[in-house]
């Protein structure tokens, strides 16, 4: 007989997984899948390239996240009310996308995709806040693992599944189907309980809405060190990951070999790493997990140096990618739980969006010149630099121990 407390924990993590799925589903419907649709429709390469701008809301979501802490809708509570209306609008916008012909109105399609991206980023804000408030502190690691697990499954279904479906039933029907799946996710929002409300009056003034969350965070001991750590922890991994596909191509791997080994086979070690990482965080705590998983991430980056000397060998490619993905999955689970643990529940949406924006800087900005580095020092030198770049984050983590030892 499963105890009531155990059933409650299972329910919490099922909800977390399903919300992660809803978060991951729309992402690539405005990215690679839409690019394929517009390309097949004869839209110019220049216009297809402009679709990169559609992703801007994901990097700017901290700008409106505090408003979701400020305003409460008159139904379902602060988090579920915003989540339900955002998902309903998302379903509607996806239906509009499905019924739009990009060969006739490519500009309108791009604007609708921007709207989907904005709503999707808003959904991420609410779900991140919900997860932080809904899960007990000792379950943040496991919960973060289930969230990322669901997120990846949603992304895979929308991208790989969407492209395969488009060849069979067409893009219009594919987008309608994805809208239907997101509609089903609204049932999860209705089923989920509203997190216990923090005993604090909602902010009324500008400084309470936008400035108090920032002041609250930076006034804590070690705040700037924590922000620097968030920036550095996955820096080496992000910079290396920015050029892995050109690296594989330089070794002579074909698109089919990269797709089958890195994308399809490599997904399972990543998901396994996320799940195992979540379990280990419950046993070890967030701080110890960050240290161990960070060391594993650094070693996995060094594995690409070995692959460079092994050359075009599928078994070595699979081994290096598997190790790198397991380590990355474990590190992601710990890092996501760590950021959630830093937020004050009075300002969950605003603070988590700010921290996740800082986390995304290495991937979006700092990794941009990585091609110049690889061209200057060669592949061995590039991956050695990426390995060493992980050290400052780990050393800073040791200095921050007194602020995190309870995590």
Summary tags:
407 residues, mainly alpha, 0% strand, globular
Helical coverage, percent range:
over 70%
* Order of SSEs: HHHHHHHHHHHHHHHHHHH
By DSSP (H or I, 4+ residues per run), the number of helices equals 19
Mean pLDDT: 80
Written description of the protein model:
This protein has helices at 4-24, 32-40, 45-49, 56-60, 65-70, 78-98, 106-134, 140-191, 206-218, 223-232, 235-241, 244-250, 255-265, 267-284, 286-310, 314-342, 348-366, 370-399, 401-404. The protein is mainly alpha-helical. Helix 11 (235-241) packs antiparallel against helix 18 (370-399). The two termini are 32 Å apart.
Quick description:
With 407 residues, the protein is an all-alpha fold. The chain contains 19 helices and no strands.
Please give the structural blueprint.
Elements: H1 4-24, H2 32-40, H3 45-49, H4 56-60, H5 65-70, H6 78-98, H7 106-134, H8 140-191, H9 206-218, H10 223-232, H11 235-241, H12 244-250, H13 255-265, H14 267-284, H15 286-310, H16 314-342, H17 348-366, H18 370-399, H19 401-404
């Amino acid at each position: 007989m499963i105890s009531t407390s155990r059933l409650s924990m299972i329910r919490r993590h099922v909800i977390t997984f399903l919300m992660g799925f809803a978060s991951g589903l729309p992402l690539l419907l405005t990215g690679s899948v839409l690019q394929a649709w517009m390309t097949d429709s004869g839209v110019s390469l220049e216009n297809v390239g402009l679709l990169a701008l559609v992703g801007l809301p994901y990097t700017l979501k901290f700008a409106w996240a505090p408003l979701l802490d400020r305003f409460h809708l008159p139904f379902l509570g602060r988090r579920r009310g915003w989540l339900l209306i955002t998902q309903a609008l998302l379903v509607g916008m996806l239906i509009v996308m499905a019924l739009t012909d990009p060969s006739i109105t490519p500009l309108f399609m791009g604007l609708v995709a921007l709207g989907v991206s904005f709503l999707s980023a808003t959904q991420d804000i609410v779900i991140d806040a919900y997860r932080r408030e809904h899960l007990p502190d000792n379950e943040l690691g496991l919960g973060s693992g289930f969230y990322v697990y669901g997120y990846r499954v949603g992304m895979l279904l929308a991208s790989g599944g969407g492209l395969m479906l488009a060849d069979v039933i067409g893009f219009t029907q594919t987008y309608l189907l994805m809208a239907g799946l997101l509609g089903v996710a609204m049932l999860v929002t209705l089923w989920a309980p509203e997190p216990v409300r923090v005993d604090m009056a909602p902010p009324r003034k500008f400084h309470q809405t936008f400035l108090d969350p920032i002041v609250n965070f930076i006034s804590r001991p070690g705040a700037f060190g924590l922000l620097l750590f968030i920036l550095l922890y996955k820096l080496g991994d992000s910079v290396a990951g920015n050029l892995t596909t050109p690296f594989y191509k330089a070794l002579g791997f074909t698109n089919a070999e990269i797709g089958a080994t890195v994308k399809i086979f490599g997904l399972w070690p990543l998901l396994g790493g996320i799940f195992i990482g979540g379990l280990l965080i419950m046993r070890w705590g967030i701080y110890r997990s960050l240290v161990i998983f960070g060391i594993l991430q650094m070693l996995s980056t060094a594995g690409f140096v070995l692959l460079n000397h092994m050359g075009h060998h599928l078994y070595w490619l699979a081994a290096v990618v598997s190790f790198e993905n397991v380590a990355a999955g474990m590190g992601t689970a710990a890092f996501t739980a760590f950021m959630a643990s830093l937020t004050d529940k009075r300002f969950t949406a605003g603070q988590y969006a700010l921290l996740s924006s800082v986390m995304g800087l290495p991937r979006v900005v700092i990794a941009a010149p990585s091609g110049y580095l690889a061209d200057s020092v060669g592949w061995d030198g590039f991956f050695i630099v990426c390995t060493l770049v992980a050290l400052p984050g780990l050393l800073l983590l040791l200095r921050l121990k007194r602020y995190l030892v309870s995590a």
